[in-house]
Amino acid sequence: MNETGNKNTSPLKPNYLTLVLLVLIFFPAYFLLIEERPASSQVAPVSPVIVPSSTNTLDQSIANAEKNPSYDTFLQLGIDLYSNKEFARSIDAFRKATELNPRSELAWNNIAAAYGELRQWEEEIKACEKALAINPDFQLAKNNLAWAKSQLNK
């Protein structure tokens, strides 16, 4: 109450009804903004798991892989080839990476992504299955597998 004996009805003081209405309006709107994962039949293809982390040119990546043939250099070479849309060559580099680290779900998923770019769905499926045999919870490989299967059935 103010000095005149009336209730204070200042618009700046929120009451419980206003708060409840705000929650009811904005709380559901929050969930509308959250992107849901598409159903497996609507999964879009994804690019390789790892993006180029260096400023190496393709020539530098080739030289690095020749000079120091390791899992990391072949993986980076595959990524750089993939980024340059040389998908068949990137598969070769990723395969060399898997020879050095056969338990690399990343390399197998990258092989799958490259086969997807070449529209070789059966090969993409095989590579996804190898990645998922290593790590059954690998979501990108699950997405790529669903995408490849949906394209194969078209």
Concise structural overview:
The protein is an all-alpha fold. 62% of the residues lie in helices and 0% in strands.
Cα separation of the termini:
72 Å
Radius of gyration: 26 Å
| CATH class group | Mainly Alpha
Q: Strand fraction band?
A: under 5%
Describe this structure in words.
- The chain has 154 residues and is mainly α.
- The chain has one domain (45-152): Alpha Horseshoe (Serine Threonine Protein Phosphatase 5, Tetratricopeptide repeat), CATH 1.25.40.
- It contains seven helices and no strands.
- The chain has helices spanning 16-33, 58-67, 71-83, 87-100, 105-117, 121-134, 139-152.
- The longest helix has 18 residues, at 16-33.
- It starts with 15 loop residues before the first helix and ends with a helix.
Looking at this protein, list some descriptive labels:
single chain, 154 residues, Serine Threonine Protein Phosphatase 5, Tetratricopeptide repeat, globular
